[in-house]
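Translate structure to sequence.
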């Protein structure tokens, strides 16, 4: 196992070693050995940024694109923009070979954490929150770039489940003040921060694919779930969710996917008019 771990941490050998690691996850990851696999999975996440192009805090997505700010896109009314209010931007890479390698890296992370999803129940309670966050970011968030309605729906449901966990994983201040015992594992602030970031990434990727007709119901449900619990998110993430949900609601009110919305006199859509 140590040899496999060394290969997975080696940037040059990672892609070739990953299929073997996926098989080991599905066959050897048990309650007795979950600590060993958990350590490697966390380490893989830590080196992810090194293996992918820097995006200056822009969310990474599965098809070498990033979502631009919703508000800036909503101000464009030339009729050629994606009705969802989001567009993709090509990440500048130095060569076609690097582009191909980047795509393979993303797919490999997707495959690794797809295998983790199959055995997630073997991990300990204190590990489960982090495992779900890693699955959310590396597997579910990437799954939204698909034409497979089942895969999209599964990823959307997992996103909603992770959002719902936020109201049950943390004790209320009133409960702590009254000395009420809390038996569940309480995630650290860093674990909570990573979960929020992964959720916003997942929602942005879902939002970017809002134009596909089979995604409409899942997107609506997911953003409503996030909006209902919006106060649990930090202000920055809350504002991003609000911006996207405004567009989702406006699209829903239009009734027809792909219909061009009418700008008001100020040249802005209603959601962003002052």
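Result:
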């Amino acid at each position: 196992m140590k040899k496999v771990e060394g290969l997975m941490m080696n940037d040059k050998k990672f892609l070739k070693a990953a299929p073997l690691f996926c098989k080991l996850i599905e066959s050897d990851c048990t309650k007795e050995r979950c600590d060993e696999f958990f350590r490697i999975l966390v380490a893989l996440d830590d080196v992810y940024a090194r293996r992918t192009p820097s995006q200056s805090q822009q969310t990474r997505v599965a098809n070498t694109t990033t979502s631009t700010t919703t508000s800036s896109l909503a101000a464009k009314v030339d009729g050629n923009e994606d009705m969802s209010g989001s567009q993709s931007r090509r990440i500048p890479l130095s060569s076609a070979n690097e582009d191909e390698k980047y795509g393979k890296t993303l797919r490999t992370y997707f495959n690794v954490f797809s295998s983790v999803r199959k055995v997630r129940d073997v991990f300990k309670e204190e590990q489960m929150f982090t495992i779900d966050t890693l699955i959310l970011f590396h597997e579910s968030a990437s799954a939204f770039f698909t034409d497979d309605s089942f895969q999209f729906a599964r990823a959307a449901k997992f996103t909603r489940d992770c959002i719902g966990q936020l109201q049950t994983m943390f004790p209320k201040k009133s409960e702590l003040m009254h000395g009420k015992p809390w038996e569940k594992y309480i995630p650290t602030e860093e674990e909570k921060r990573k979960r929020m970031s992964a959720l916003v990434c997942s929602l942005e990727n879902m939002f970017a694919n809002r134009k596909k007709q089979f995604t409409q119901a899942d997107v609506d449900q997911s953003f409503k779930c996030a909006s209902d619990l919006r106060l649990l998110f930090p202000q920055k993430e809350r504002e991003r969710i609000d911006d996207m949900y405004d567009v989702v609601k406006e699209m829903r009110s239009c009734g027809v996917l792909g219909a061009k919305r009418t700008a008001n006199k100020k040249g802005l859509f209603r959601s962003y008019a002052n």
